[in-house]
Amino acid sequence: MIALCICLLLTPAALVHGSLMDAQTDFGFKIFSGLSQDHSNQSVVFSPFGVTAVMSLAQLGAAGQTYKDLTGAMGFSMRERGMSRQQRLLQSAVSAEKEVEIATGVLVERKMSIEKGYRRALAKAFLTHPHQVDFSQPEQAINIINAWVSDNTNGAISDFLANGSLTEETRLVMLNALHFHGQWKVPFDPRLTQERMFLCANGTQTPVHMMRLTDRFHYGEFVTTGGVDYDVIEVPYKGDSLSMLLVSPFERDVPLSVLTIELTSHTLRRWRQGLKMVKRQLAVPRFTLVSDLNMKKVLTDMGLGNMFNLARADFTRITTDEKLCVSKVLQKVTLEVNEDGTKGASASAAVMFSRMAVEEITLDKPFLFLVQHKHTGMIIIIVKGRFKGPYYVIFLSIL
């Protein structure tokens, strides 16, 4: 398998770098770096825009320590003065490109009331409103979400959530969908595409269809803080407002993690300043990739583990009806690069649930049974039982 790390960063070249965009870029790169390390021998396609959007939706509803954790990890707060306007302008600038389509949505359990302040925040920053869904019918809710994603990715992603990915405990799903279809400013000639060997991250080689193009490109040579030499070449799409940046170390045995760990908004600006127009022959694989990512581990490693814990998470700015926490943060990305251009789509979701909503508790899995004497806590019997299946540990104590 070809091991590539691709960050689908759609930033119009003409867009002025603002504090929010830089902070969102840095946050997305941190997640991408973590994903790249966790999938060091696998291909990773990631959309920072999508995950940053759903995490921003969560931050708008966070309070207390959860809000502080999110703000610290993300490097910005959507509740700061002027940030909602910056978010609207950023999303509007990207959506204005005819090659890009973006949608953001929040689906809420129909019986749960939403705080007015959260409704206003969604409208102000993302121009969206909560839509009611009956999560007591989880498979029906999955079909609704998958249809929404398919509609907003031009059919590129039609099976975002698998069966069983939502339960009756689901209370809210934050969504972002992105679709991109850009044609190269100078297309690759299919007649020049040849099969060549590609060096995989695990040291093996595999044959790939390698496209070739000789043209004048913006190109630069750079060095990491650790002394690793690498080059950057920019391949523009039609209209010149969007482009693909290809980054590769000079030495064939250098792992990509050496480069991904140093990706920041400052790095992007340094590249822009250091690129020069030169004539080069570019050879790049023709490929199609799909990534299904669960970012719970990466986000936990970034200090956001408490938002996945029902006892510690605080999303009371969303609702006070029930205590909410995040159960998973998911993303699916498809990417196709060929002689004509690039087709890409991403769907991102932050799923929230509440155990307080469970009407029936079924002990059909391993459990602990404790009867506590409140004054002493004395346990007088420990039972290890088996009920035609796994062993169960039961603790009994006097009342």
Automatic annotation (TrEMBL):
PROSITE patterns: SERPIN (PS00284). It holds the Pfam family Serpin. Residues 1-18 form the signal peptide. It comes from the Eukaryota. SUPFAM superfamilies: Serpins. GO terms for cellular component: extracellular space. Keywords: Signal. The keyword Membrane does not apply. InterPro entries: Serpin_CS (IPR023795), Serpin_dom (IPR023796), Serpin_fam (IPR000215), Serpin_sf (IPR036186), Serpin_sf_1 (IPR042178), Serpin_sf_2 (IPR042185). Residues 29-390 form the Serpin domain. One of its GO terms (molecular function) is serine-type endopeptidase inhibitor activity. One of its GO terms (biological process) is negative regulation of vascular wound healing. Belongs to the serpin family. Forms a heterodimer with TMPRSS7. Interacts with VTN. Binds LRP1B; binding is followed by internalization and degradation. Interacts with PPP1CB. In complex with PLAU/uPA, interacts with PLAUR/uPAR. Interacts with SORL1 and LRP1, either alone or in complex with PLAU; these interactions are abolished in the presence of LRPAP1/RAP. The ternary complex composed of PLAUR-PLAU-PAI1 also interacts with SORL1. Interacts with PLAT/tPA. Also interacts with SORL1, when complexed to PLAT/tPA. This is Plasminogen activator inhibitor 1. It comes from Periophthalmus magnuspinnatus.
